[in-house]
Design a protein that fits this description.
heterotrimer; A alpha/beta (188); B alpha/beta (240); C alpha/beta (462); A: 188 residues; alpha/beta; Rossmann fold; 5-stranded parallel β-sheet; 11 strands; 24% strand; globular; B: 240 residues; 2 domains; 4-stranded parallel β-sheet; 13 helices; 12% strand
């Protein structure tokens, strides 16, 4: 079957002029401050962004933020110093999921997450807290994916705001399957 | 300057006044106008329905009739597009010089006035009139003419009304309107339902106007529909 | 799936007559989609993006055999099991075998037009497997027992009121529940399905040859869940989905999203490189990719229409299509509707089944103008019309009348005599003539100019 399909493809293309690859994507190179651009994009689609000057500031904020939740499912790749004091519960029961993003892209407002620390904490809890280092926020998605290509995990995923659907009556509803609330903590 | 007028089959039969107004308008702009009496149809109905041998036969006749035209002016974006781009497709490599030359000399009316004559104002008789402009699809997308009619209307004093569906197809589509009449009528209804109460609805295409006005009449009234040539001639002539 | 494309005219008429709310819902949705696309194109150099994307796809398609082999190698290295399928039946066999291997009883699905094309749900259900659509729109139409009516918004033909009534019946939600409440009810039911399903089935937006990446775009998170929670993931991927390079992906994802919904990028993108790896806490134990032909190689060989294989299924041509807007997708009687559906139908189904759809257009060209990969859709529709006529499959009356019309058009006096003659006929007769009969059924009387311009000119003072 494979060989028949490939033979048909080759025969179909026998007289076809080959089109050259166009090279790099002519996408926008955003000038200006990258973190501000990411923040604007991410907030525009209903996400939340917090920026911290250092680890101490982040931990102070985290204590207050976490107090609203009864338990957490955290990705295995979240640094130990950013752990909450909340009890760990299975992702399907957790009100809060926490992950570490490898990169973020300002032009699309995307977080680049990978599967190494676990996928379900990114997906099942209704609230998702994502940490990202300030120096991992790239100007463009192009750059972020290029940075990631050396080490492609089972899944590299982009999360660009809360889960949403407009399938019912054209009204945008958040939190349909994935998290309805996404909070990004950018740490310098 | 001499221009030959191709009035189109629908123009001849349903928009005779607009054809006459085209002649007057062009003359007022210093153009020597002639009308080739052997003209019939550009062949587009057969072409778009996929009947290319019939379309070629009609197009060959038309090419012969118009062989001497210095400029060809067509008060229909759709027929102008057929002659400028459709004939090339229809005849392919067999088209030869006649097809290529006609393509280079063919213009829709507003295109001709603005682009060839270099005139962007024909009068001011539309002051205070609210005008809705329907862009015929082929003028807009095949000829790439969006601004020319709007410029002429605006400079004649018209207030161009915002019309959500101004650039949406009216549903005429030649034989489409007879083969799928319910869909075609629904398309016209969307145009009419979004129309913001203008004094005049105008367009460069007899087919679209015939369809829209016919549908408006069937639904029991509606605004005044007039061909662009008539609206512009009245603007120039001060009668409007 | 069942194909009813040859009945386009009757289906369109029936929808307009019997279900007027469909037109209202579809116009509302498609106009909004199109406005979002237009704004999103305006934010970037969309002409440059589209020229680039067109070349990315054409490059991959004109080197398709090599890139398919490269994709297969990389997928295999990534631990993905690759299958090849020539027909829908081949796909069903692969699914049957994979399901049997893993003891699958329940499947959760991400939205996949290819799975609709292949009739996957019916095949699995015949095997006794429960199939749950998890995209909210797909879930709604699965409950209605309908096929999707739009590539991106499968349930856009359904109003809020329709869905309120459905969920009241199925889930016991209040009769006037809000969209939020309805979505919450679906979320509860579908969350259970994700956590108990044995297999997730998805399509694929792009398959990157260089890295063996399967890329999927969505907004809800259901595809991420369907590819993460069950123990097996099977992706159905048309062979035309291959692109050459990892560096093509960022641009293709963004342009597809902008064209489809106006977003900078879909809310979730999955870039999959195989099953759960050692040390990873979760993920499927097996990932299968089925590379599907189902008529695509035949299309690739067609000089006039192969470029339609560049299609990224964004739905932009449906949204802008004034013909599609009147009826929605069900009139087309097939999985793909609107301009791209009308181009694909005769190519993939043949002229007998699919030949009616290219006539469901005014050739207005709006589709070609918005296509993110620059497919000359309305030119292809015209090509299919010409081929339908050449194959002798146009209505006989139409051919006879156009022959007579063409003969008359070469004889100006006769041509004008014909027009004059028509005006002399009693209305009762005119109303029975082909074409005029349909015209007069929906328009007022013909406003003949008396006399015609040329008659006046001839008599003139000039």
């Amino acid at each position: 079957m494979r060989d028949r399909i490939l033979a048909r493809v080759r025969s179909a293309l026998a007289d076809r002029e080959v089109v050259a690859h166009p090279g790099a994507f002519p996408g926008p190179l955003h000038a200006g401050p990258v973190i501000e651009a990411f923040t604007d994009r991410f907030r525009a689609v209903g996400g939340e962004v917090e920026r911290f000057a250092g680890m101490d500031e982040a931990l102070d904020w985290l204590e207050g933020f976490a107090s609203a939740f009864a338990g957490v499912a955290a990705g295995a790749d979240v640094p130990a110093e950013l752990a909450t004091k909340l009890p760990t519960v299975p992702a399907r029961d957790a009100p809060l999921g926490v992950s570490m993003a490898r990169y973020a892209a300002a032009d699309t407002g995307s977080l680049v997450l990978d599967s190494k620390g676990g996928r379900l904490p990114q997906l099942l809890p209704p609230t998702h807290l994502v940490w990202v280092r300030a120096d991992a926020v790239m100007a463009t998605l192009d750059e972020a994916l290029e940075a990631g290509r050396g080490d492609l995990p089972a899944v590299l995923a982009l999360h660009s705001g809360p889960s949403r659907s407009a399938d019912i009556g054209r009204v945008i509803v958040t939190g349909v399957h994935g998290p309805g609330r996404v909070v990004v903590g950018i740490v310098d | 300057m001499r221009a030959t007028l191709f009035v189109t089959c629908l123009g001849d039969q349903f928009f005779a006044d607009a054809c006459a107004d085209t002649v007057e308008l062009l003359r007022s702009l210093g153009v020597d106008v002639d009308v080739a009496m052997g003209q019939t149809c550009c062949g587009q109905p057969a072409y778009n329905a996929g009947h290319w041998p019939e379309a070629r036969s009609i197009a060959s006749h038309t090419l012969g009739v118009l062989a001497d035209a210095e400029y060809l002016v067509v008060p229909s974006g759709s027929c102008a597009a057929m002659m400028r781009t459709g004939y090339g497709e229809l005849f392919g490599d067999d088209g030869g010089r006649a097809v290529a030359e006609l393509a280079g000399r063919t213009f829709e009316l507003a295109e001709f006035i603005v682009g060839v004559l270099g005139v962007d104002a024909v009068g001011s008789g539309l002051a205070g009139r609210r005008v809705a402009y329907h862009h015929g699809c082929h003028a807009l997308r095949e000829l790439g003419s969006r601004e020319e009619p709007l410029t002429l209307l605006r400079n004649a004093g018209a207030e161009l009304v915002q019309w959500e569906a101004a650039e949406e197809c009216c549903g005429f589509g030649g034989l489409f309107s007879a083969k799928l009449p319910e869909v075609s009528a629904a398309m016209a209804d969307r145009k009419l339902d979004t129309l913001p109460d203008p004094d005049i609805v105008t367009s460069a295409d007899p087919g679209c106007l015939l369809h829209l006005s016919g549908r408006a009449a069937e639904r029991g009234g509606g605004p005044v529909f007039r061909h662009l040539a008539s609206v512009l001639w009245e603007a120039a002539n001060g009668r409007s | 799936m069942d194909v009813h494309s040859r009945d386009y005219a009757a289906r369109a008429r029936a929808i307009l007559r019997d279900e007027p709310h469909v037109r209202e819902a579809v116009i509302g949705a498609t106009v909004a989609f199109d406005q979002h696309r237009e704004r999103a194109y305006g934010e970037v150099d969309s002409d440059a993006w589209r020229a680039w994307a067109s070349d990315v796809k054409s490059h991959a398609l004109t080197n398709l055999a090599d890139y398919l082999e490269e994709a297969e190698s990389r997928l295999t290295e990534n631990g993905v099991v690759v299958h090849w399928a020539e027909t829908a039946a081949d796909v069903h066999s692969v699914l049957e075998a994979v399901a049997a291997d893993h003891g699958v009883r329940k499947v959760v699905k991400g939205k996949s037009m290819l799975s609709e094309e292949l009739g996957v749900n019916d095949a699995l259900e015949r095997q006794g497997i429960e199939v749950v659509e998890t995209d909210l729109g797909e879930y709604v139409i699965q409950l209605f027992g309908e096929p999707p009516s739009h590539i991106v918004g499968p349930a856009i033909h359904r109003s809020l009121e329709d869905i309120q009534e459905l969920f009241h019946r199925v889930h016991g939600t209040p009769p006037h529940a809000t969209p939020e409440d309805l979505a919450a009810a679906a979320r509860v039911a579908l969350r259970e399905a994700f956590l108990t399903a044995d297999m997730g089935i998805t399509g694929g937006n792009f398959l990157v040859a260089e890295t063996g990446t399967l890329a999927l775009i969505e907004n809800e998170g259901n595809i991420r869940l369907a590819t993460s929670a069950p123990k097996v993931h099977v992706a159905l991927v048309g062979i035309e989905k291959v692109i050459a390079r990892w560096s093509d992906l960022a641009g293709m994802l963004q342009l597809t999203s902008r064209a489809a919904t106006g977003q900078a990028v879909g809310t979730f993108v999955s870039m999959i490189h195989g099953p759960r790896r050692d040390g990873e806490p979760d993920g499927p134990e097996a990932v299968h990719v089925i590379l599907v032909d189902n008529g695509r190689t035949g299309m690739l060989a067609d000089e006039a229409t192969w470029e339609a294989l560049k299609c990224v299924r964004c739905g932009a041509c449906l949204n802008v299509c004034p013909v599609y807007r009147q009826t929605g997708g069900h009139a087309y009687g097939w999985v793909y509707s609107g301009p791209i559906g009308a181009v694909l139908a005769p190519a993939l189904l043949g002229l007998d089944e699919g030949g009616a759809l290219p006539f469901a257009s005014t050739l207005c060209g709006a589709c070609t103008e918005v296509c993110p990969v620059r497919i000359p859709l309305h030119d292809m529709l015209l090509t299919w019309r010409r081929r339908t006529v050449e194959a002798g499959k146009a209505p006989a009356t139409e051919g006879l009348l156009l022959s007579a019309y063409a003969a008359a058009a070469k004889r100006p006096a006769l041509f004008r005599l014909g027009a004059a003659g028509l005006q002399l006929l009693p209305m009762a007769v005119t109303r029975r003539l082909p074409f005029l009969k349909s015209w007069l059924a929906v328009h007022g009387d013909l406003p003949w100019s008396k006399p015609s311009f040329l008659r006046r000119w001839k008599a003139g003072p000039k």
